[in-house]
Amino acid sequence: MNGDLSRAYKRLKKKNGWDNSEAIAAELRETMMRLAPVPMGMAEEMADFYLGKPLDDDVVFKSDEILELLSGTWSSENSLMEIDDWDFLKEQVNAWALEMDMDVVTDVMKAVVSYG
Fold first, then answer.
1. In whole angstroms, what is the distance from residue 40 CA to residue 44 CA?
2. Contacting residues for 60 by C-beta, under 8 A, at least 6 apart
3. What DSSP string describes 15-63?
4. C-beta of residue 36 within 8 angstroms of C-beta of residue 43
C-alpha cells in the first residue's frame, strides 16, 4: 500500500532515524488523527488501537486501510483486516455515528457487514 500514512511513515523514518521508533510512532499517530475524516475523539481512539502496537510495515498498512475505508477509497484486495479490526471499527462507528458524515457511516457499515 502506498497511502498517505505509509508515505508519512517512510518520511518520518528518514527524518527521525530508523531506530527512533518512539518519535516516529508519536508523529505517525498525530498524522493518522489529522488524516482521519472523523471526530477528533474517534480519531484518537483509532490511532491508539491501530498504532498502539510496535510499528512495522503491516501495522502501518492496516492503519492506512482504515483511513482509506473512512475516505471511501478502500479495496479489499490484499487486506490485512481481521475480525478484531472490524469489530473495533463497528463499535467506533456506532459510538460516534451522530457526529459523523452519514455517507461515511453508511460506507463503513456496508464494509463491516460484507467483510467483518
1. 6
2. 5, 6, 9, 28, 51
3. HH-TT-HHHHHHHHHHHHHHH-SS-HHHHHHHHHHHHSSPP-HHHHHHH
4. yes
Q: Give the Å distances, CA to CA, from 37 to 44, 69, 70.
A: 12, 10, 7
What are the boundaries of each domain within the chain?
Answer: 4-115
Q: Which three cell numbers stand for residue 107?
A: 460506507
CA 15 from centre of chain: 22
Residue type, 18: W
pLDDT tens string for the chain (116 positions)?
578 899 999 998 888 777 778 888 899 999 999 999 999 999 999 999 999 878 888 999 999 999 999 999 998 989 999 999 999 999 999 999 999 999 999 999 999 999 87
Task: Quote the pLDDT of residue 32.
Answer: 95
